[in-house]
Write a structure and sequence with these properties.
The protein is α+β, with helices and mostly antiparallel strands and 391 residues long. It has helices spanning 29-32, 74-86, 99-103, 155-166, 192-201, 217-231, 236-245, 249-261, 282-292, 294-307, 316-328, 336-344, 348-353, 361-390; strands spanning 11-14, 17-21, 45-49, 52-56, 61-65, 68-72, 112-114, 120-122, 133-138, 142-143, 176-180, 186-190, 206-212, 264-265, 278-279. It has a five-stranded mixed sheet. A four-stranded antiparallel sheet has the order 1-2-5-6, with helices on one face. The protein has a two-stranded antiparallel sheet with strand order 3-4.
Length: 391
């Protein structure tokens, strides 16, 4: 595998910056120690990076400076490394005896240079994107894109909207972040609760908006994720649907597996609103893919869809966790047909109630696994007895 990357060796270190191109030689120790899991069947792996967990593909460049690690596409790595060099001061050489002992290893600091007037001018990365326009926009001109926006069809959102409407305070009304699309549609990226509260009142006709131009709906969705993750936690389904709209490969992979199995991802976290065949344990599916691979994850989802066809999967997360544990540890004598018979011997609710009263998804899955395993073994013995009787 060969990649064109000027001034970067496949594995090297310069200016305190270490690099490794995935696919060119074995992974250095500083890469391996940041891998929370194993290599996936598709050749990718997860690494604990400075922005959080990131998926590494063949050809990606992993870059380390001090305790920070980044993953960059091969064609962007050179520029990124140059920017890192600008942000690191030259190595200090006048550290006397005892200073390292007293203060620890030398550390990099934000670089600065003196202007002609003697003042320090600190280097920064160039701003990303173009400057927005600040405008007052009539409410009826604004809209939300349900593809990536969080659902407001829940008790928490209703309370928030009602609270903002009842005690509307201009001092708390920051400008809405809005995308001006090519067709002049104004889509709200951040601020839909304020917008809906103003609509409910009737005496507020306009809202201040910070209007940007994005290249695509996917870019809007990425900005939505960044804005909301930085401020407050998103529930797992809002996070999943926003990632899906942003064409995130993990979200697309989950959707494909769930759809192929004959199931659907719910839009609401409240199980009372779910329909038959809807599931919400997207984070468990992602974890199963990383730990056990696509074949086992797909097989578990398919078994659930077939065994509980037409049923509401209120306890789907616990059942999924139990089946993953069962099928990932199955031996050569494992019989998938008997497992299906075992699952169909009770409804999804009846299985789920076997773990009722336990707190935590892992505890419920573990308890249900033990019940499922015992029931499966009973079915195996029953099947063996029937076969012997026939013979």
């Amino acid at each position: 595998m060969s990649f064109s990357l000027p001034a970067i060796a496949s594995t090297g270190s310069a200016n305190g910056i270490a690099t490794w191109i995935y696919g060119e030689g074995p992974a250095p120790d500083w890469v391996a120690e940041r891998m929370p899991g194993e290599f996936e069947p598709n050749g990718t792996f997860i690494i604990e990076a400075t922005p959080g967990q990131m998926r590494v593909h063949p050809g990606n460049v992993i870059i380390r400076l001090g305790a920070d690690v980044w993953v960059q596409p091969v064609d962007e790595a050179g520029h990124f490394i140059e920017s890192l060099k600008l942000s690191a001061v030259r190595e200090i050489t006048n550290v006397g005896p005892g200073k390292i002992h007293q203060f620890g290893e030398r550390r990099t600091k934000p670089s600065s240079r003196r202007s002609a007037a003697g003042r320090h001018q600190i280097r920064f990365h160039p701003p990303v994107g173009s400057q927005p326009s600040i405008e007052w926009i009539h409410l009826e001109r604004l809209s939300v894109d349900s593809i990536y926006q969080r659902s407001t069809d829940n008790v928490a959102s209703e309370r928030l909207i009602a609270s903002i409407a009842a005690k509307f305070d201009w001092r708390l009304c920051a400008p809405l972040v809005v995308s001006r699309r090519s067709d002049d549609v104004l889509a709200i990226i951040d601020g839909q609760h304020r917008w809906m509260a103003a609509q409910r009142r009737g005496d507020i006709l306009q809202l201040p908006c910070c209007i940007f131009r994005y290249g695509s709906r996917e870019e809007e969705a990425r900005m939505f994720i960044l804005a909301n993750r930085a401020r407050k936690p998103m529930n797992r389904l809002d996070d999943y649907y926003a990632a899906l709209a942003a064409a995130d490969e993990d979200a697309l992979e989950i959707r494909q597996l769930v759809t192929d199995a004959g199931l659907q991802i719910a839009r609401n976290t409240s199980s009372t609103a779910w329909k038959a065949g809807e599931i919400a344990f997207t984070s468990s599916i992602a974890q199963a893919i990383r730990r056990h691979g696509i074949p086992i994850t797909s097989a578990v989802l398919t078994n659930m869809a077939e065994a509980f066809s037409g049923q509401k999967l209120t306890h789907g997360g616990a059942i999924f966790g139990a089946l993953i544990k069962l099928m990932s540890g199955a031996g050569p004598d494992f019989d998938p047909d008997i497992l299906l018979d075992t699952l169909q011997s009770r409804t999804a609710d009846e299985w789920g109630k076997r773990a009722q009263g336990l707190h935590g998804g892992a505890a419920r899955a573990r308890a249900l696994y033990e019940v499922l395993l015992a029931s499966y073994q009973q079915h195996v013995e029953s099947h063996r007895g029937t076969t012997e009787a026939i013979q």
